[in-house]
Amino acid sequence: MLDPRKLHLLRELARRGTIAAVAEAVTFTPSAVSQQLSALEREAGVPLLERTGRTVTLTPAGHLLVEHAQAVLEQLERASAALAAVRGGPAGPLRIGAFPTAARVLLPPALAHLTGAHPALEPRVAEIDPADVSAALRAGELDVALVHEYDFVPPVTDASIETAPLFGEPMYLTDRPSVAAARSDAWITGKPGTLCHSMAIRACQAAGFEPRVRHHVDDFDTVLAFAAAGLGVALVPHLAATAPPPGVRLTRLPLSRRTLAAFRKGNGAHPAIGAAVTAFRTAVPHLPL
Amino acid sequence: MLDPRKLHLLRELARRGTIAAVAEAVTFTPSAVSQQLSALEREAGVPLLERTGRTVTLTPAGHLLVEHAQAVLEQLERASAALAAVRGGPAGPLRIGAFPTAARVLLPPALAHLTGAHPALEPRVAEIDPADVSAALRAGELDVALVHEYDFVPPVTDASIETAPLFGEPMYLTDRPSVAAARSDAWITGKPGTLCHSMAIRACQAAGFEPRVRHHVDDFDTVLAFAAAGLGVALVPHLAATAPPPGVRLTRLPLSRRTLAAFRKGNGAHPAIGAAVTAFRTAVPHLPL
DNA sequence: GGTCGAGCATAAGCTCAGCTTAAGCTCGAA
DNA sequence: TTCGAGCTTAAGCTGAGCTTATGCTCGACC
After folding, report:
1. Which stretches of B121-229 are DSSP H helices?
2. What is the pLDDT of residues B25-83, one digit of tens each?
3. Nucleotide D21, nearest residue via CA and C1'
4. Domain formed by B91-167+259-286, architecture
């Protein structure tokens, strides 16, 4: 019988690319991962990995098995969720990941509602950029996460992750009437690798130019302070722009950002996940949208 | 993460009813099964078994988990079948179960065709009554089995077993024009617990009487010899009635028997299973139906 | 073109999950 | 009341699977 633990390692290898990265994700040594994958290959009776020097890539058979691993792990997740549901209402630790703006604006009322409704639940929040959410969910470091997706930026596209939409909000540009009008300005974006960074780049590309990025700042309050000081222009979401500093003029753009809850596929039936999504949605009407 | 091996034990317990029977099926000691199920309960966090004295029954939560176990094991079976397919054509051992008539009539030409088309395949045949097929398939003692279903007898009804129809044949009654006309005769049926036994009982019940069963004989040649000796009447399928002994008159009834190939759900994509079903079907046209 | 470091595999050793045997408990049947 | 079928618990042993240690390969960098 195929071992789901080994299948999980194979799936992680398919996503992360190196055995070392898989080992880090599951807090094993690379040696252990290597041994497990070798054993899986032996049981499979067909090469799954191609070793070329110091790198390793999946064979077509490997990719095929990853597809099946996905289905198996999803079913196991469903079974666990069903057990959690039969154990009773939401209880125990619930690890929540959130991007900074959500952590500040959405989570306080949501968590108040959540712990009020389910005293046995122990929510634990960690800040995380949406770009890293899929990996953290798959690795079991998080149970549910708040993420956003922008126009121009592909949404979470991971077969093992499921999302539930929460709300949308418009985007604003500082001090210019349109993205095209900021063609020759200095830009303030998020750090490379974050979703906010990609979002700004893609929006400018869609307007026909490559932005000149001068400052990499993740916190939108700081971004607005920079803009107020005339250091550049930036795109900010509504939630971060309810009280702009004096001297910053915001123009609403035909761009939007959607916020979603993400969790492992098959885990949606888990009562704690359901309670969290409900709490998030309950908190949304109180937001200054 | 839930362990599929433990889930398999729970599923077997749901079918077989006692820990001792499960242990016998998987060739463990009852102690090992008991320990594994206790561990599963601990991981599940909810009672799955109810111990009342020396017997054990599944709780509702236990039954729920069995449903999920079924889905998980089916996905694992699919994954294994996909690997077997990617390994190449049908090869290796293939354990085939068959009821006696099929073993004598259908299997010789089917196996000739099978090994001719796939020399790397090593078919191994074991005679088995259709009533025991599901358990043997689930336990992994067989890979594919020939079974039959009669009118009046419910077909294989096991969520973990899948069937592929092969052929149907009419049934015959010895020395009487109809079942109703044999109301007061002595009957020859299969041994209690076999499908042939149930079939005869149900057919008589449908005709409005309870048969007086005097002889329990499984082999249809022997049955016909008994009938020729005037020891009773019997229902025989066409395949067993192509050369009745002198003195036995056969009447074709509006009853039929269907022969099917059975295998574990999810295993249908296994190349050896596919090849076997094809071979069975190829052999059917040569049968004296 | 050496040198360094990142990445993977193998060897050796150790720990613990999971099996067996043995013994005890419970309950229905004779 | 005794016996046996069935489950659990205790104790011990083996092997799967982890770690550490070591060696190999190859691209990057001076």
Report:
1. 130-138, 195-206, 220-228
2. 999 999 999 999 999 999 999 999 998 878 899 999 999 999 999 999 999 999 999 99
3. A31
4. 3-Layer(aba) Sandwich (3.40)
